[in-house]
UniProtKB/TrEMBL annotation:
Residues 1-20 are annotated as: Disordered. This is Hemerythrin-like domain-containing protein. It comes from Agromyces bauzanensis. Residues 27-157 form the Hemerythrin-like domain.
Length: 243
């Protein structure tokens, strides 16, 4: 496990215990992106020709998804790459690659947004296939990017960013209102975690009011949202009320 700098920036004591990698929190968001973008082409292809109501619903979901990835990448661009380049100059090629991949994905997401608008009005077969192909391309490019980022950038960021900096980044990102329903995102993250890790994540990441809200209404809301997205799929694996 990589050890980060302590919050003071002073060298860590030789016998200091390793702290969990804060980039692991970002990896959980990556898992959500992998799942939602992986599902997206099939969702579009499954819409019956002319079903404009279903197309309108999925259009809102897809536009929210692309906006959420734009926002995620803007945050990484703002907080990660300059610091990584300054503090780990030997990783300059990785920084350049991350920035270029973000730019390329941004262009591909803009194409998707335009194709969503073309498709949703009439839900015709040709427009649906054009959109699905574009989503396939985003899914492939995103998978490569996330693999590269998690392998080449995150171990370095865990070394060069202090605990205080990670907290500041988390607080700044937390001020952004998500472009997709919050309970959907929380539920997807929980589904991504092994059963043995869920309680720790809940205690660490969810304040008590959110835990209470998820227990009372959020889990059911998540399951309804997931069922509406994937009506032919079975109920979400591993879902359970919060303790």
């Amino acid at each position: 496990m990589t050890e980060r700098l302590p919050s003071t920036g002073a060298p860590a004591a030789p016998d200091a215990p390793a702290t969990p990698c804060r980039s692991d929190e970002v990896v959980l968001i990556h898992l959500v992106f992998r799942r939602l973008f992986g599902d997206a082409p099939g969702l579009v292809r499954d819409v019956a020709p002319g079903d404009v109501d279903r197309a309108a619903f999925l259009a809102r979901h897809l536009l929210g998804l692309t906006e959420m990835l734009h926002t995620h990448h803007r945050a990484e661009d703002a907080f990660f790459w300059d610091r990584m380049a300054e503090r780990a100059p030997a990783c300059g090629l990785h920084v350049t690659a991350m920035r270029r991949q973000h730019e390329a994905l941004s262009d591909e997401l803009d194409v998707v947004d335009a194709l969503v608008d073309d498709w949703k009005a009439e839900a015709d077969v040709i427009a649906a296939e054009h959109l699905a192909v574009a989503l396939d391309q985003v899914d492939r490019a995103l998978a490569v990017h996330l693999d590269d980022e998690e392998r080449d950038a995150f171990p370095v960021l865990d070394e060069v960013l202090s605990e205080v900096e990670w907290d500041e980044i988390s607080a700044e990102v937390g001020r952004e209102r998500p472009a997709l329903p919050l309970f959907l995102l929380v539920g997807l993250i929980m589904d991504s975690l092994p059963e043995s890790e869920r309680d720790a994540w809940i205690a660490r990441e969810l304040p008590w009011p959110m835990r209470a809200a998820y227990r009372l209404v959020g889990r059911r809301s998540y399951e309804r949202q997931l069922q509406r997205l994937r009506p032919a799929a079975s109920s979400p694996k591993g879902s359970r009320p919060l303790a």
